[in-house]
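Quick start: read one record
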Amino acid sequence: MVTTALILGALLIVGMGTLFAVSPGRLAPLRDDAGQIIEGSLSERVTVQIGGIPQSMFIQSVDPANPVLLFLHGGPGMTEFFMETTHPTGLEQHFTMVWWEQRGAGMSFSGDIPPETMTMNQMIADTIEVADYLRDRFGQDRILLLGHSWGSYLGIQVAAEAPDRFLAYVGMAQITHQLRSEVMAHAFMTEAYRERGDDAMVRRLNAAPVSMTDGLSPAYMRLRDAAMHGLGVGQTREMRSVITGIFLPVWQMRSYTVMDKINVWRGKIWSRPFFWDDLLRDDLSARLTDFELPVYFFLGRYDHTANPDLSRAYLERINAPVKGLYTFENSAHSPIFEEPGRATAILLRDVLHGSNSLADNR
């Protein structure tokens, strides 16, 4: 017993030592193909006062004079910079990429955040304040805004509220009416697993109801991610497990401290209840259709987290100076990470220039 306890204690010490060793909380500098630091490049972690509290972001660019692209992560409360380690986009080669971690999420999580500030109005105000900080710091009158999933629910409302701050808005996996999307996903997954002959999963889905009247059952929420990833229609086309696809990559990130990594999960759990019910029930296509800036949607063909058919129908209802719809044929929920080359080409050729020459609806 003593020997076993000593071995377990030693393993725990080694494990903790390894965790701290891979958690310095610093971004690596950007390097060229020869491994040399790119002169004049930017790769830093920044904390500024936003909405009365400290909020943090990663900023990377080979040239800080490049157009600023502000990325709004999903969730609510789930950061996404870890995806750059598993699915690098290379966007820092063309843009000044800003990976802001929102109020109550990741590096911006704190137990001192007043719960009463966790409102949609405050999140919109925070985003505008971050945009103003970036516009002032980098001397750009307008920047690009890209929202993913929950970030698209936030981002499209920011775009409507403050169009003068942005060159364009890009919604990736654009939320439209999330409860309807979940109902459609449940029906799709039940039929897909039935066709596979997976009777056990069909029974589990049938015992985990979803409806427009009663919402999402607790049983469905426990089953949802595993069922989606089993079909390749979740976060990415090839992701099969939240553990290997999200949990472990977050713990392996060197740009986070150990406390940052803990706060990623604290923030996800804490933030979600403030927004989830409203996110589910809100039908954006019924109340938000007029925009004074170009609007672009990046949709994954295999996405059943945010149904692309709903997003397409939403874009048809939108009035904007320019509209662009782009279907990514090999993607699920995360097109810029799954097909970064095509996403970059669209951003450079269409989005930056107010065009839709590459769009499905050109």
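The first helix runs from residue 2 to 21.
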